[in-house]
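Protein modeling request. Please complete all fields; requests missing the sequence field cannot be processed.
Requester role: graduate student
Desired output: 3D structure, token encoding
Chains: 1
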Amino acid sequence: MRSTGSVWLCSIWRGPEQCKLRGPSWIFGPEEPYERFGDVGNVVFPCSLTVREDGDTIYLYYGGADTCLAVALGSIRELLNWLHEHGVPGGGPLD
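Delivered output (95 residues):
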């Protein structure tokens, strides 16, 4: 998955009140022109998430720049591996 925040990873797997690890950086942010230019530029916001039948593939549906809807694909396995490798304890705000 390209680059909302690493706190999002905690929220999916444990819930924000039980976050064991959080990533040290954002994992989702505006990069493409349709995400950077529009009614509200440089904004992406998750709307919905589905997991495919393989149990690993994530489809993250999101809005970009308040002008379009898009989907980002990711892997639960890859996200968790990244979190275990780079994660820091706690669920506080990102630095």
